[in-house]
Amino acid sequence: MQTSNTFLYSAAATRRLLANATRTIQIREFFYVVWVWVKGQRPTFISKRRYKTEFVASRQRAARALQVISQHHGYFGIVYTVTSSQPAQPAYQVEVAGTHIACTCEDWANQIDRFGKAVCKHGYATLQHLGHETLAAYLNR
Length: 141
Prior knowledge:
Blueprint: H1 4-8, H2 11-18, E1 25-29, E2 33-38, E3 44-47, H3 48-63, E4 66-73, E5 78-84, E6 92-97, E7 100-103, H4 106-115, H5 121-129, H6 135-139
Antiparallel strand pairs: 1-2, 2-3, 4-5, 5-6, 6-7
Helix pairs in contact: 2-3, 3-5
């Protein structure tokens, strides 16, 4: 079962942080840092803050490849349809109502379950469509 910590401090996130796509990785979580061992290398520590920054940055990067194709008024706010440039990928609905951003994708639901708050790549694509590069920029408008 995946927990909030294994979701955030994952092997995939470690590979992105270390630019290492193929090697075996072991991860151990401590209070402020994550101990990382990559096969053939010396163990190292990575701060949890760096993981959290990468978690957001990876979704912001992925959002740049998405397109907001339509919008309509929903029950609480404006609903945007976000699609990928790849035709096989499904479209997702992102609802923006004040400071609340909700999406129909699994990543958004996983973040809500684990952290109680969420912004997925579709949410970031919608924010970029509205002219805001970050959630903080949107909230401070």
